[in-house]
Write a structure and sequence with these properties.
alpha/beta; 2 domains; five-stranded mixed beta sheet; two-stranded antiparallel sheet; 13 helices; disordered C terminus; 2',3'-cyclic GMP-AMP binding; transmembrane; membrane; cyclic-di-GMP binding; STING_LBD
Length: 399
Amino acid sequence: MQQLGGEECLVPRPRGSLPKACAIGLASVVTAAILVLEPEGFFRHVSTAILILTVGPLLHGVFLLSEECLHHATTRYRGRRLGQMVTACVGVCTLLGVGLAVLLFVLTKPQPWRDQWSMVILACVLYPLLKTLGVLGPSEVEVSEICETKKMNVAHGLAWSFHLGYLNLVLPRLEGSITAFRASHNAGPFETRGSRKLLILLPLNANITHTLEDEDTNIHFHDNLPDTEIDRAGVRGRVYKHSVYTVLDKDRQAHHCVVEYATPLLTLYKMSQESSAGFGERDRREQVLLFYRTLQDILDRSVECRNRYRLILLNDEHEDDPHYLSNAILKNLDQQEKEEFYVPPFIPQPEVDHPSHALPIIDDWHRAEPMSRVPTIMISHDMPRTLREPVENSEDLSP
């Protein structure tokens, strides 16, 4: 994954398994302590705890199942079998927990249960009530983790749509468009390898301007790349465009590159402006970061898009700098030039017949291809040979 410089600390990492490890550790310590302090009542305590923790969710699942069967069996499940609704409402793990509790109950002597039945029944009945009222509901962190794990966030859908509906189509054709552009403009722009990538801007506030000149006076529109026409979804020759911009550095030196905003961020911004969407500023910022992380993961695994793009995350805390956008673009261009170099594609040269006894002249070889040229890869199609010539040894010959 590419580095972001100062913005890399803003992107949230996937949540780890620390809560699970803490829960396992605490449960192990408490279980060991009860087994040591009260070994004769160990199974009784375990059975009681499992019953309370499983029968309550089972009752809550039964209540959910009644709602699904009466009102949603046709619309949500298309009249499918009851087993699918049971699994969706109760869960396999809950059923296994109840089975384990019943097994422990059978193995435990019935006498000690007489004083605990009232507590078990009361706890199992109160669980669905507290769960329905939201007292035992999942926290915001749990909901966020579930959405991230199951790819249910708005950002995940937008990132996949942006990749499959746009980037996966245009990025493989970007090099050809730039080559055609250079041919029609006397090969002026795009002299460096870094400038031949599509620079995609992602502001954290998702507030996108439609003209970059309004955002930064050091950025000027230069021209458009040749249109890319693709037959798409019944539209013959759908046109995809890319704009070339001139970015001026502090010495007023011009740098040309293809720059554009990530258009799905417009959707996130518009959603935050609509009260009916239930999408606040905090949610928008979180979704922008998840959009960046998801899109980066998708593009890292895409062979067609590899090394043809650059994601630039823009921190909105620098809005007071009038040239922050141009500085961020130039910083990424300079970083690319330091990280990589351009190896031009191999073009086979016509073979020249030489006498088999003739050897290449060293001076002519140096004059034809100077040592200061851009390095190329030399591939030989000959079979490997030994470095030593066969030497005849007269002592091995018999008289």
